[in-house]
Specification:
By secondary structure, this protein is of the alpha/beta class. It has one domain (about 15-245): Leucine-rich repeat, LRR (right-handed beta-alpha superhelix) (Alpha-Beta Horseshoe), CATH 3.80.10. Helices cover about 15% and strands about 10% of the residues. The protein is elongated. The termini are far apart.
Length: about 260
């Protein structure tokens, strides 16, 4: 297995392992790793955070299941093509970040991660999401932007805690009606897709929704404004930005963006 490309005099293998055991944090960014170092597996239950961002890892070993108490798994900007089914064993995971890899699908076992709160898989080649994603009832943020998704699974409505759903730059043509069950959803961002219409009850049912972004889609502003619940949605959106202005919160030039092209 791979290891760090260089070792300082005060950073021996034993020293790193001792530090990992003490802090619970394994951070090996930009280390030119090609695989998960065996030293990490030796630490096992002590690991709470594993950050291997910006390496050359192309495979996640099934043995990662030995890190049974891990809460944060950050593998952004590697060469990973698939996840092992054993990831479903890691029931303490709260955060998974897999941005900038080569994933084309996700294992069904992902749905076993009942404590997961944040899942970010941008910049991959996903063509679909597993139906089991609907079992992630504590998921607050899902970002699957810049993939090859044609749709979201019907089960997405099961993610009852979801507050932020980003799926920009895909080829999604429509949303499943189950998104209307996401009563805590605050942000829905679907820029650069192929969406011609939204579920009719979206604005009516998602009463927490404050921000909808649909730029570069066939849907028109007129269609959006004619949806039931639009006036209430618009009131929430303006209230949010008025509150930010009153609090002197810095906003970008798109702060009052209406979310659709004219």
């Amino acid at each position: 297995m791979g290891c760090c490309n260089s070792k300082g005099a005060g950073d021996s293998s034993a020293g790193r392992v001792a530090r990992w055991r003490s802090t619970g944090i394994v951070a090996l960014r930009d280390s030119k790793l090609r695989a998960l170092p065996s030293e990490i597996l030796a630490v096992e239950s002590f690991v709470r955070t594993l950050d291997l961002t910006n390496n050359r890892i192309n495979e996640v070993t099934p043995e990662i299941s030995r890190l049974v108490n891990m809460q944060r798994l950050v593998l952004a900007n590697n060469l990973i093509e698939q996840l092992p089914t054993t990831i479903g064993v890691l029931r303490h995971l709260k955060v998974i970040i897999l941005d900038g890899n080569h994933l084309t699908n996700l294992p069904e076992e992902l749905g076993f991660l009942s404590r997961l709160e944040k899942l970010s898989i941008t910049g991959n080649s996903l063509v679909c999401l597993p139906e089991t994603i609907g079992n992630l009832r504590n998921l607050v943020l899902l970002n699957v932007s810049s993939n090859k998704l044609k749709c979201l699974p019907d089960s997405i409505g099961g993610c009852i805690s979801l507050e932020e759903l980003q799926a920009n730059a895909n080829v999604i043509e429509e949303l499943p009606s189950s998104v209307c069950s996401l009563v805590h959803l605050k942000l829905l961002s679907l820029n650069n897709n192929l969406i011609q219409q939204l579920p009719q009850d979206l604005l009516k049912s998602c009463k927490a929704l404050q921000n909808v972004s649909l730029h570069e889609n066939p849907i028109s502003m007129e269609q959006f404004q004619e949806m039931e619940g639009f006036q209430e949605f618009e009131a929430r959106r303006k209230k949010k930005f008025d509150k930010q202005i009153d609090s002197n919160v810095m906003m970008s030039s798109t702060g009052l963006d209406e979310g659709l092209d004219k």
